[in-house]
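Kindly review both lines to help learners:
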Amino acid sequence: MGGMAVLLRRHCRGMMQRSVFGDYETCNIDLAIFLRVNAAPRHFIPNSDCEIPMHRRHVFGLAAGLSGCALAGPALAQDRRATTLRFVPNGSGLATPDPVWTTGAVVGVHAQLIYDVLYGYDQRGLPQPQMVAGHQVSDDGRRWVLTLREGLFFHDGEPVRAADAVQSLARWSRRDTFGQVLYAQVEEVRALDDRRLEFRLKKPFPLLPAALAQNAFIMPERVARTDPFQQITDYTGSGPWRFLRDEWVVGAGSAYARFDRYVPRQEPSDGHAGGKVAHFERVEWRVLPDASTAIGALQNNEVDWVERPLFDLLPRIRRIRNVKLDVFNTLGRIGLVQLNHLYPPFDNPEIRRAALAAISQDDMMAAIVGDEAALGKTGVGYFTEGSPYASREGLGGLFTGNRDIPALKERVRRAGYRGEKVRLLSPADMDVIKAISDVAAATFQSIGLDVEYISMDFGSVLTRRANRNPPDQGGWNAHTTTWTGLGMLSPATNTPLRANGPQAWSGWPDLPELEKLRQEWFDAPDLATQQAVARGIQRAAVDGVPYLPVGQWQEPTALRADLTGLPKASLAAFWNLRRA
């Protein structure tokens, strides 16, 4: 771990009082679904215990809870604790509740509380029927008929109809990477009646259930008619809990009430699939941006679950009675520095290549995991370690070992760098992402780039990174974020790897060779061919540099010891959890 990393690590530790956790990008996909491209079968017929700290960020709970806390005796407080789960989310909590408009993982966690999906991934990574009772596929693979389960309702009491699903999928497909690929093969999607929807395809697409399990949340038709590039304002959901909009305060918290008309599948919970049984009547999100305060609240039984404890605090947590560490996302997280391809200097591929060569994943892991080095992994390319598509192809000496910084600085100069500012967006309230930003800023400066470090809350980052204006007119040049390891397993799900210009993810790379290879991967007849194409994709990514990979790591979660049934899933999930 280099000297730069040590200095940055000390700086990060000094900033511990400013933030709790990093926020992450996500998609819910696991590796087994890609082991066989033709694997799809043809037939599938709240409570505060009156101990809410007097902190200004807890104002959201006081109005609803003061009278109850003032009068409640121990028995009533204990009863409320039995029915309420108190959760500390990443950073500043929920800034926007629309899971189509943004890919922020905190939004995905929220969305899984209030929405359901047609298919969900089990722990093996296989898409399983969720809102659908099953599907039928024509012999030529070009017609799919999906049948909804009986008894599905939205939170306003209206039944879930096939027309709602059709419109929800249409909106989702405009923004989701996997959805774009699926809908490129769609001739028509229509409702046959209230319970059946039909896909007519240009050619067979056996991964259709896997695509629809990719955050394709079902909303009422009227809500799903909202332009996908605009945020929804109606949060009527279809999932196990209702969003209590009146209790949502940005930067303070949010709350959810169990939806009694939700009907779980009659089978055990399994990852993001199976029976989603809501044991808690109420779920409260409490924003505690101070990392030590969050763990103190957990120790004092004021909260039940801290989603992303600071790595520096893990030794302390291990010593606390009645608190445990667990892992729900077994493939961990992957960090990246996203580059804006529209404007100088990163519109210049040679400067992007120099930046890629300057990245030290050793320094990145030192800044992120600190003394918990066993949790970090370096030498990670454009696919998740553990995926059948991960390799060292094209990486050479990138990311680890010595780097010739003076030579890279000269390379930047010869590439025509003219001193343009690199406006780097950094979320002050997301500890992990901020650490990546700190190392990225120092790395850019080391190769002669003029960095303007712009610190803001993560909600503001989400808004600004969607801005395509020039960097000096409200835009940006680089931002940092992380994704679940599940989300970068394959070309189908790796959203930042998409390089189709204006339709690509934030950064908008336009790399035709990368797009050509990506389509070849979808057309590949078997795993061996897919793996060969994936190696070509990584070579093309190293050449075109859509973004800068910074490594992979595991992140424990901290809970009260009496909580059981934590789902093993790519995101924090609340169904199946109960008190022992």
Confidence is low (pLDDT under 50) at residues 1-72.
